[in-house]
Amino acid sequence: MKVEQTIERCRELIAEPLGAIAERWKESHPGGRAVACFPVWSPAEVIHAGGMLPLGLLGAGATVELTHADSRFQSFVCSIAKSSLELGFQGLLKGVDGLVFSNICDVARNLSSIYKRNFPHFHVDYLHLAQNSTSGGVADYMADELRRLARGFEEAFGVRVTEPSLAKSIELYNAIRARIRGLYAFRIAEPQKLSTVELYQILRAATQAPPEETLSRLDDLAAELPDREGRPKDRIRVVVEGAFCEQPPLGLLEVLEEAGCYIVEDDLFLGWRWFTSDVPADGDPFRALGQSYVDRAVPSCTRHEGREPRAKGLIEKVRRSRADAVIFTPPKFCEPALFDFVPMRQGLEREGIPQLLVEFEEKMWTFERTRNEIETFVESMLFD
Amino acid sequence: MPAEVKERQYQGKVHQLSRDMMNAWMAQLARANETGEPTGAIMISGNCVELLRVFDIHPIFPEVTALQNAIRHQSLPLILKAEEVGYSSDNCAYVKADMGLFLSGGMGPGTKMPYPTVTLCNYVGCNVYVKWFEHLAAATGSELFMLDVPFLRTSEPTAADVRYVVKQIEELIAVLERISKKKFDIDKLREILRYSVRAEEGYARSKDLCKGSPAPFDSFFDAINMMGPINVLRGTREAADFFDEAVKEFEGMVAEGVGPLSEERFRMVVEGPPPYPYYRSFRNLFTKWGAVAVASTYSTVGGIWEWGFRHDPARPLESIAEQMLTENLTNRSIVARYGQIKRYVEEWKADCLVIHSIKSCRLFSAGQGDMREYFTKELGVPTLLVESDLEDPRYYAEAQLRNRIDAFFESLEHKKLVAA
Questions:
Q1: What is the pLDDT of residues A193-229, one digit of tens each?
Q2: B196, B200, B201, B207 alpha-carbon torsion, rounded to 10°
Q3: Where are the domains of chain B?
Q4: Which of residues 61-90 of B touch A (CB under 8 A)?
Q5: Residue A41 maps to which CATH number?
C-alpha cells in the first residue's frame, strides 16, 4: 500500500468514535472486550494478553459539544477531562467495556472515580504508577500493581491473563515500538518526507486499532517511506513539547509546519511509545513490564525521575534530533506541563536554545494568532 | 427579620494557645537557620512528621508558610514574582507563593525561614506536591526524598502497597540518619507516637463535640486553630497537652450551651479549603446567617481521626504507613469523600453542604460539580457551590460570593419557615 493510502486509512480510523471501533472489532471477536486507556502510559500489553482490544481514550477534540461534563468539572479544568467524560454521557463509548486511568495528575485521578460513579457498567481501574524510581521496593511494587490490574480484568470479564500470553503481547508491542522509533528516526533524518501531521495520524490510529493491524501498517510504511518524494524546505527544526495528554488539534500541527517548522521531535502519544528500548521478554513478564516503566522510560512530566533533572531529557532530545529550537505546547490548565515548563525553559536558556510557548486547547479551531506568533519566531531565527 | 447574629469572641484560650505554639515553632526554625541545625521540608497531607522528629530535624511546612503569607495579605507579590519566571496563572498558587518567597530572598541564610536540609516529598495523593518539591529541592540545593504512597484505589491498601511504603520508610530512615548524624531510636519513635495518639484522641473528641447543638466551635473556620497542632506539631508533648486543654474548654462550652455565634441557625458541612487572603471576610458572609460549620473536609487533609484510627506505638512504621495510605483525605478518591461528607451530614445533623471550590487545588476541586449533583439530586441535601482560591486574592470576588451565599441561606430560611 502506498504511503498516502496508508495515511488515508489512518485518517478514516481516527474519525470514527471509539465505541464504534470497539463494536466493529467485536463483530469479528464475539464475546470480546475492549478497554480504553486514558493518557499517559497504560500497559496495553496486559489488556491484549487477556484477548481484549486496547484503545486510547483521548478526549473528543472539537467533535462533541459539552452538554453534561461542564456541570461536573469547573471552568479551570482541562478540556480532555471534560470531553472524555462527555463521551460517556453521550453514549459514544458504547461498546467499550473498561477504562484505565493512572496518577498522571489530580484531574485524571478525580475523573477516574467520577466515571466509575456515573457509569457503573464500565470496569474502571486506576493505576498508581511508581514515583520513586530508586527504591529497592519499586520493581516488586510495579509487578504487583500490574498483576492487580490483570486480576481486575479476570474478575470483571472472565478473561485470563497468563504469563506466557503477556510475554507474547510484550513481544508484539516491542515490535510496534521499534517501528515507531524507526519512524521518529526517519523523520529526524528526512522531515520533508514525513510531516508531523501525517505521523500524528499514524500514531493516533495505532491507539484505535488492534496491534496486529498496526504492526502490519507500520511495516508497510517502513518499506514505502524511503522512496517517497520530498524536497527540503527552508524551515527551522523544532522539538514540540507538552502535548503528551490532551490532543492538539491537527490544525495546530498544520500551522506549526506551514509557518516554517520541521517538527523533528515531540512528546505526542508518549505513553504508547514509552520505552527507550525493548521490554525484556524473559523472566516474569509482569516484573519486566513494571520495572521497564521505571528504568526504560522516556522523560515525562508525569513521572518523577529522581536521577536526572527534567531539563536534561529535553536538551538531549534537542541535540539528538539536531533541532534549532523548542516550541512548548502545554494544554490550557495542564499542571504537569505548566510546572515542568519552568525548569525546562531555564535549562534551555542555560544552553542557549531558543524556545517559544504556545498554549492550546483540544477544541481550539482558529489558529491565525498562533500562525502569526510562529512565523515571527521562525523569521527571527532564519534571518537573525 | 431575625435578630442579627454575632460572633462570640470565645476562642480566647484555644486560639491563643495555638498561636503561641505555632510562633514558638517558627522561632525554632529561625534559630535553626542561624545554628545550622538540620531541617526537613514536608507536606501536610497524610504526613509522617514523627520521622523527622525522631532525628531532631526541624519540620518546615511550605503550605503553612504559604497560607500564613496569604492571611497576612502578602501572597500576591510572591505569586507575581513566580509568574515572572514562567509559572502559569493556572498553576497552584501555594507553589507560586513558596517559589516566590525563594525568588524574593525570603528564605535561606539571613531570613527567618531556612532552606531545608532534606526535602521530603510525602506524595500522598496530591500530584502537585511532586512538582513543588522537585522545584524546591532544585532551587535550594537540598536533598530530595520521594516517599511514594500508592493512592487508595481499592477498598483497603494492597499488601504490596504497605510493603512498598514500609520499605521506603526504612530507606528514608537511612537518609535521615546520615543527614542528622544520629542513629535511629525506635523507642524514641514510640514515645513520639504516644504523644501523637494523645493529640489525635483530643482532636477527634473535639470534633465529636460538634455533634451537639450548638457546636462549641466552627469546624471549618476555627478548626485552623487545631490544624497547626495536629498536623505540624503532632508528636510533641505540647501538642498533646494542647488538645487536653481544647477538649476541656469545648466540654465546658457544651455544658454551658454556647457556641461560636450568638445563635446557631444553620448547621453546615464545608467542603474545600478556605480563601486565606480573605479569611475573615469570607467567614462574615456566613456569620450573619448564623451558619456554623459542624464538620469540614479540609480539617482532615492531614489525617482523618474521627473514625477511630490512631498511630500504634507497638507497630510504629506500619501504622505510619497505614495513616499515609488510608487515614487522610487526600489519598482517597473524590467519591470516597462523598461518603465522608454524607456521614458528616447525617451524624453531625447538618442542614446543608457548602462547597468552596478553589482553582489552585484541583485535587480538592476538580469534579465538585459532580459532588453537587450527588448531594442535591440523589440525597436531597441543599448544596451551595462557590468559587475562589486559597492563596491568590485575584480570584476572590466578594460581591458575587455574597449574592450566592445570601440567596442560598434565604432559600434555606424560607424552607425552614414553611416546614415550621
A1: 999 999 999 999 999 999 999 999 999 999 999 999 9
A2: 160
A3: 14-185, 188-419
A4: 85-88, 90
A5: 3.40.50.11890
